[in-house]
Amino acid sequence: MKSKGICYLVGTGPGDPGLLTLKGKDCIEAADVLVYDYLCNPVLLRHAKAGAEKIYVGKKAGDHTLPQDQINGLIVKLTREGKVVTRLKGGDPVLFGRGAEEAAELADAGVRFEIVPGITSAIAGPAYAGIPVTHRDHCSQLTIFTGHEDPTKPESSLDYAKLAAADGTKVFLMGIERIAEITGALMKHGAAADTPIALVRWATMGRQKTLIGTLGDIAEKVKATGFKAPAVAVVGNVVNERKKINWFEERPLFGRRIVVTRTRQQAGGLAKQLTELGADVIELPTIRIEEPLNRMAFGELVQDVHTYDWLVFTSPNGVDAFFKMFYKLYSDARSIGGVRIAVIGPGTAEKIKEQHLAVDLMPEKDFVAEGLVRAFKEHQSMEHCTVLWVRGDGARETLANELTGLGAIVDEAIAYRNVPEKEDNLDVLARLKEEGADMITFTSASTVDCFMDLGLPLPAGIKTASIGPVTTAAMKKHGLKVDVTAKQSTIPGLVAAIEKFYQ
């Protein structure tokens, strides 16, 4: 009798998280356990439901976290336990990905499984380098082979004579370590030494690098430049199309490695906008959001929200925390009453709109506490107005002090705490130390404080970017030079300032 569990063998694509299929995303969201590979972009794990177990089983040349037979045993065991297991594999799971072997093990064990195809780097890698694998002016045939065969086989199963004689484009994966051997074999069997070849490393991601050469000189270029795996190789005249349609590497921030220091949950918006401009984004969560120490006091203020004239939010986190508590106390949105809502900026306003509520007051510019105070002054007299300010622990008291000075009666609802993140960033810290970065961004004073608490020295020559004056003040307090400051204290404003800086 088959287990109630199921294992999804999911191809996650070549790296760009936007290339994950909709079915693949559904499988990640449904998973009780995620078992993921080295070439699987960790950003995709954000789609997992709360409490899902995450198991890394990555393999790269000479460094196996788990051997393949143990991976097979693991996914069978988890599925037999009745769990929904999503096995995440880079590219497509069955194109040189050993997904078929894993499927066979699951079948032999009598457990349910599904294969979810993914976009292969054999096609996406060249496309992101401006190289179409087929083209009516060049070829209508594509041959794909692996440069990394089973090391236990007595001899290669590749027929280089047939490969060399085949018309059209040739693409091979996992062959960088054997590039001299592979290109030499192709030329030995008749391929022209001047045949164009392109190697695309970390294809579709912000750290993508492309090396162009010929069959005759590419091995020497790899050695001279230190070009390394993971990379896809494309051979043929289609490589010449790159001169015209190299779109991905022409974006304004391409080649810039930029660190984002927001919480893991919030980093996505800023990271996505920077990535779309071509940046190689390193997400380094320096803070995480936790519930307030006194949840009872917070809940009592939320419960009485309908008795106030104004409800004020100064961060998206405050909105999330407020409505999480609100819907624990009330089942009807109308229970919020006639209270008017004021917010500090567009990001917070968007969070209010997600609750299908309107924003009554927001500064036209200067999205800081001082700007909101000015907006109140211009809007009405605050004499005897009751205000419930939803904020994080440790926020500046400027808003409460200024509104109280205008005659308002202000209650402060501590909705959440910013806590230094010291557990969810070890891999990222290692990468930052090893590879360095061009710029680090800060989106609040707390991200600055918590980054400095890590005691991590900034890479030599790194630039810094601030979302606005409050954050800038925190950076200067810690002795950091500020290279970029957003004119408008919003995520789009910060992105625009960074793009302008690098132009």
Describe this structure as you would to a colleague.
The strands form 5 sheets. This protein has a 5-stranded parallel sheet with strand order 3-2-6-1-7, with helices on both faces. The protein has a 5-stranded mixed sheet with strand order 8-9-12-10-11, with helices on both faces. Strands 14-13-20-21-22 form a 5-stranded parallel sheet, sandwiched between helices. The chain has helices at residues 22-30, 68-80, 99-109, 121-128, 160-165, 179-188, 218-225, 242-245, 267-276, 295-303, 316-329, 346-354, 369-379, 398-405, 426-435, 445-453, 469-477, 491-502, and strands spanning 6-11, 33-36, 53-56, 59-60, 63-64, 84-89, 112-116, 142-146, 169-173, 196-201, 209-214, 231-235, 257-260, 280-283, 287-290, 310-313, 340-343, 386-392, 409-420, 439-442, 463-466, 484-485. Helix 5 (160-165) links the parallel strand 8 (142-146) and strand 9 (169-173). It has 503 residues and is of the alpha/beta class. The model has no long low-confidence stretch (mean pLDDT 92). It has 18 helices and 22 strands. The protein has 4 domains: 6-119, 3-Layer(aba) Sandwich (Cobalt-precorrin-4 Transmethylase, domain 1); 123-250, Tetrapyrrole methylase, C-terminal domain (Methyltransferase, Cobalt-precorrin-4 Transmethylase, Domain 2); 257-286 and 421-502, Rossmann fold, CATH 3.40.50; 290-420, Rossmann fold.
